[in-house]
Amino acid sequence: MFLCCWLALVALIPTTLSINPGVKVRLTEKGLEYGRQLGMASIQQRLKTIKIPNMSGKKRVSPIGKVKYSLSNMQIVNVGLPKSAVDLVPGTGVRLSIGNAFISLRGNWKVKYLRIIKNRGSFDLNVNGLTIATSMAIKSDETGRPAVSSVNCAATVGSARIKFRGGASWLYNLFRKFIDKALRKAMQKQICPLVTRAISDLNPRLKTLNVVAKVDKYAEIEYSMVSSPTVSKSSIDLSLKGEFYNIGKHQEPPFSPAAFSLPPQINNMLYIGMSAFTINSAAFVYNKAGALSLSITDDMIPKRSPVRLNTRTFGVLIPQIAQRFPGLMMKLLVKTAKNPVMTFEPNNMTVQATGTVTAYAIQPNATLSPLFILNLETSFSARVFVSGMRLAGSVDLNRMDLTLGTSYVGEFQVKSLNNIIQVVLKLVVIPQLNVQLAKGYPLPTLGKMKLVNPQLQVLKDYMLIGTDVQFTG
Fold it and tell me: Which N-terminal residues, if any, form the signal peptide (predicted)?
């Protein structure tokens, strides 16, 4: 049933847009082999549904004259597919071949001759040397999800051995060759339609592909194809858009994905390359949605911290604050001024963020009195990891630079606030940011797909996930 699950990502909407992908996916021969193993179970179940209609007729047999015969209640009792292979056809698709298969059938027989003489019994038919060869085509449906179909199929039934039980052996031996041929012919007619149906059964499952996957209330990520898949002798390479959008509004960011190539690795079933463009498109979306801002009050600062958000603490460094706003609590608004930018270097991920810190004194009537606005330049080291079927992350502060944007309380030394703002970033802003980053965003997935022992590498301009895969249903 899952033979083509591996191909689910192959046939999203192929377009003629000459743009670079944000995400690349590579399915290796190891992955195809796993798909073959799963697919054989589906085909085997389909072949077990072969229905042989009752057969009857007359045959003149010397010296007893015409003999009426019938075969009934014929059922498949076993199907074996001991040898099969799936091959990539470069530039085309996938070919499946099955050899040395066998089918066992059981039924009843009955003959009548000389008007009054009847014989009946049961029989077993074992068909060996069954071969099946089929090619599969993959296209996109109207929703941008893949649909599979059988391009061609050929089936050959080899030798058959029938064993009758009951009745006179000399009688049914007269019909042995005839029955062998008739039953093999009846089975052969049904094999390819059943294989084709097994392939078609995949289509409802392929509709589970998350072409557009919701991340949260702000964003969704699109995994549609930007070009046709590339089929080589050893892998299928897919180029996916891999771009974040605001929910319900697909606006392109003011930057484009850079070209990148996956390394020639084959140890895992599946490789997923995520470019810096994908992460930066997320930053564009969240910044545009106003989600990259945080209002901070004193109750958000851990009690153990000596730094408090009030005019007494800040008044030690900026006396005019204590003089003009004595004994008041304060509020800080930290927000980005432009889109954060992430860069990937081997074994290193860095986020550069530019923002502002606006300080307010909270009046007894809850009115906010602005005190100053600081320009904030920060650098964060980032870590990414796979969590289930999502890519998650966390950040740590590397560097912070402050400059004065606007002061409503007169001149003061900005450097005197470095320690306070660092404490606020490390104790409040970064922990809350990491809570959100730990939720992650969906990877391209199909049905009940599970990643097995994923390993992540950070390379130049992209990260690479190498993983085996397991389908749980």
Answer: 1-18
Using CA atoms, how far apart are residues 388 and 391, in angstroms rounded to an integer? 8
Q: For residues 397 and 382, what is the distance between their CA atoms, to the nearest angstrom?
A: 9
Can you give the pLDDT at residue 3?
38
Q: Which two tokens stand for residue 155?
A: 């089936």
Chain centroid to CA 300: how far? Answer: 38
Q: Specify whether 149 is located in the same domain as 272.
A: no
22 is a domain residue: no
Question: What does the block give as tokens for 426?
Answer: 């490390």
How far apart (Å, rounded) are the C-alpha atoms in residues 368 and 72? 90
Element (H, E) at 411: none
Q: Looking at residue 272, what is its pLDDT?
A: 96
Burial 404-436 (b: 16+ CB within 10 A, else e): eeebebeebebeebeebbeebbebbbbeebeee
Number of Cβ within a 10 Å radius of residue 335: 16
- Is residue 123 within 8 Å of 159, Cβ to Cβ? no
Pairing of strands 146-156, 117-140: antiparallel
Among residues 206, 241, 265, the one where a domain terminates is 206
Map residue 323 onto helix, strand or coil.
helix
Choose the final residue of a domain: 175, 206, 237. 206
199 vs 399, more confident: 399
348: tokens are 């290193």
Chain-centroid distance, C-alpha 439: 17
Residue 301 corresponds to which amino acid?
Answer: I
Distance, CA of 371 to CA of 120 (rounded, Å): 104
pLDDT tens for each residue of 62-73 = 666 677 888 899
Q: How many domains does the chain have?
A: 2
Whether 235 and 173 map to the same domain: the answer is: no
- Residue 74 CB coordination number (10 Å): 21
For residue 106, count other CB atoms closer than 10 A to its CB: 15
CB 147 within 8 A of CB 141: yes
Same domain (yes/no): 170, 247: no
List alpha helices for 89-168, DSSP H: none
Instruction: Decide: helix, strand or coil at residue 262.
Output: coil
- Domain around 232: 212-471
On whether both 229 and 359 belong to a single domain, the answer is: yes
Angle formed at CA 125 by CA 122 and CA 127, multiple of 5 degrees? 175
Which of 39, 13, 8 is CA-nearest to residue 25?
Answer: 8
